[in-house]
Automatic annotation (TrEMBL):
Protein name: Flippase
Localisation: Membrane
Gene Ontology, cellular component aspect: membrane
InterPro entries: Polysacc_synth (IPR002797), PolySynth_Transporter (IPR052556)
A Pfam cross-reference name: Polysacc_synt
Keyword Transmembrane helix in annotation: yes
Transmembrane segments: 7-29, 41-62, 83-105, 139-158, 164-183, 246-266, 287-307, 327-344, 356-374, 380-402, 414-430, 436-457
Record keywords, A-Z: Membrane, Transmembrane, Transmembrane helix
Membrane topology (UniProt): Multi-pass membrane protein
């Protein structure tokens, strides 16, 4: 039940972290227009490379290491401060690199300096510690308050197309404040540690190992926006981000399991319980499949009308882009389960690194021809193929460690249920009145169709849900 509770907390936060800009984006897209939205997306994609240097794989590494030693509070405190020292040093190095970059970069310097607040915020991000001790409540409650305040600030302050810089500052400052709110809890959560006892450098190389896959991941997360901005237009970069925002909102419900399960599995690994580790993965993989299939088919079914209706006139290209990108919901769900929930806790960092590096290489190779010939849609197909290659590589890696029969036991049932749901909802979306009320009806019909079919096919998730209810009643 602790895992389920943490999953719900993490889902709540992940959804809020994305839904706040989604709520505001319907307003911002009309005020800043595609040009302003594109400028923010393009400059943010650049600052993310420097944030990558500052973060240096610490999110996954810190989460895992804290989970390993959380039974010993003194050792946990020592580990926390050693990792935080490395992170602070890396943030300073990243900011110096950014200042050198700005000596030569002359395009939209005002926007770039506003984006640099995001880089400062990285130094104060200690969410990895609370993820490691599986205390998701403190992360959710404190950051939720800050996100809501930032949403109110956007509606109050952003009034015309010239407010792009102010919009960037509001988003960046909200991130910084959200990170700062976690620090008061550290004094009561950790005992004091003498500075002389700290030795941060043994953590450096393991972080580098996890830094490499993070670089690879960021390449095919951010490079598409950067290349679209350079090869097509900044407006196309904005279209990509707005499509990505809606898809990632759906994806957050699925990938939240990775953040929750990583410390849980890592703790089981530290106790030498491999049978339990495999069983947890089979259940988690089935759960994310049960969620990912309907989300993939659902967002594809309504995308053509959802995007222009939500964002307003001028954003029609976002619809087809979303339909293409919806495929990554399933691919990332699977790779998150295998990579984050299995390979990383088992310390198989090289295999995890190789998988995301493969995806990055595929993305770089495909981006130039696909963006050249098909622009935004080409970038989307490049993203989809890259994510498919990551998932395929990871499946090859674990073929001797896991039973594919157990892993994909219920997958065909979710696929059939989701596909039928797609045809029903897509027909309604294409032939019935285009209104928010009708779209709400389409979503409800889709959920009901999928749920009924899953029940009729007796998918594994049905039995898991029944067992949880029985267990809860007994307690």
């Amino acid at each position: 039940m602790r895992v389920i509770r943490n999953y719900l907390y993490n889902v709540g936060y992940q959804v809020l972290a994305i839904i706040v800009p989604l709520i505001t984006s319907a307003y911002v897209s009309r005020v800043l227009r595609p040009e302003g939205v594109g400028a923010n997306a393009f400059t943010n994609s650049i600052i993310q490379y420097f944030i990558l240097i500052a973060s240096m794989g610490i999110g996954y590494y810190g989460n895992r290491q804290i989970a390993y030693v959380r039974e010993n509070r003194q050792k946990m405190a020592k580990t926390f401060w050693e990792i935080q020292i490395v992170k602070t040093i890396m943030t300073l190095i990243a900011f110096i690199a950014f200042e050198i970059f700005m000596m030569f970069y002359t395009r939209q310097p005002e926007y770039m300096w506003a984006q640099s607040i995001n880089l400062v915020a990285v130094a104060f991000d200690i969410s990895w510690f609370y993820e490691g001790i599986e205390d998701f409540k403190v992360i959710v409650l404190k950051n939720s308050f800050v996100k809501i305040v930032s949403m109110i600030a956007i509606f109050l302050l952003i009034k015309n197309p010239n407010d792009v810089t102010l919009y960037i500052i509001v988003l960046a400052v909200s991130t910084l404040l959200g990170n700062l709110t976690l620090w008061p809890n550290i004094r009561k959560d950790l005992p004091r540690v003498r500075a002389k006892a700290l030795n941060p450098w043994p953590h450096f190389w393991p972080m580098i190992e996890l830094f490499i896959p993070q670089i690879a991941t960021q390449i095919y997360v951010q490079l598409n926006k950067t290349m679209l901005g350079g090869m097509v237009s900044e407006t196309a970069s904005g279209y990509y981000q707005y499509s990505d925002n809606l898809v990632k909102l759906i994806l957050a419900l699925v990938t939240a399991t990775g953040t929750v399960m990583l410390p849980h599995v890592a703790n089981a690994v530290s106790q030498g319980s491999m049978t339990r580790v495999n069983q947890m993965l089979y259940k988690s993989f089935d759960f994310v499949s049960a969620l990912a299939y309907p989300m993939m088919f659902g967002i594809a079914a309504v995308s053509l009308t959802l995007a222009p209706k939500y964002y307003g006139p001028g954003y029609e290209p976002v619809g087809p882009a979303m339909m293409i990108e919806s495929i990554v919901i399933l691919m990332i769900a699977w790779s998150n389960a295998i990579g984050v929930q299995y390979l990383l806790p088992l310390n198989r960092v090289k295999q995890f690194t190789a998988s995301v590096t493969t995806g990055a290489i595929v993305n770089v190779i495909l981006n130039i021809p696909l963006i050249h010939f098909w622009g935004l849609d080409g970038a989307m197909w490049s993203t989809v193929i890259s994510e498919c290659s990551v998932t395929l590589y990871q499946l090859i890696v674990v073929r001797h460690l896991l039973s594919f029969k157990a892993l994909f036991h219920g997958s065909w049932k979710y696929f059939i249920s989701g596909l039928i749901m797609f045809f029903v909802v897509f027909w309604m979306n294409s032939n019935m009145k285009d209104s928010w009320l009708m779209m709400g009806v389409e979503v409800i019909v889709g959920v009901l169709v999928y749920a009924v079919l899953v029940l009729l096919l007796r998918a594994p998730i049905v039995f898991e849900a029944r067992n949880l209810i029985i267990e809860k009643i007994k307690k």
